[in-house]
Amino acid sequence: MPQACPCNPSIAYAACCQPLHEGRFAAASAEALMRSRYSAYVLGLRDYLLATWHPDTRPAALDLDDSPDLRWLGLDVKRHADAGDGSAVVEFVARYKVGSTPAVRLHEVSRFARVDGRWYYLDGEFPV
């Protein structure tokens, strides 16, 4: 049975985020990039995360929690709005759990920019 994609367990990873992670093609939309970045967090793909971060806001290094007790529980995309001018917003909720602690709900409104035909993550805000 094929490995399920972290961003959408009903789709095989090989048919969803893996081609983006391997650089076979660029994300077609800001939502596709956001989903592939979520999957990259789940899979610990630090280089992909940095490569898809806009150079103006990209950190010099990225520390990922590589605790064996960390489990990502799912992703829910709430909204995707492409402004048509090379910018887009994606609102999502991701859930994760570390060990036996209660699950954490990460709610973010992310901004994306399209540069030379490729989408990049700019930054995000955490709504109250």
Automatic annotation (TrEMBL):
<dbReference type="InterPro" id="IPR048469">
    <property type="entry name" value="YchJ-like_M"/>
</dbReference>
<protein>
    <recommendedName>
        <fullName>UPF0225 protein N792_12805</fullName>
    </recommendedName>
</protein>
<comment type="similarity">
    <text>Belongs to the UPF0225 family.</text>
</comment>
<dbReference type="Pfam" id="PF17775">
    <property type="entry name" value="YchJ_M-like"/>
</dbReference>
<dbReference type="InterPro" id="IPR032710">
    <property type="entry name" value="NTF2-like_dom_sf"/>
</dbReference>
<dbReference type="InterPro" id="IPR023006">
    <property type="entry name" value="YchJ-like"/>
</dbReference>
<feature type="domain" description="YchJ-like middle NTF2-like">
    <location>
        <begin position="29"/>
        <end position="124"/>
    </location>
</feature>
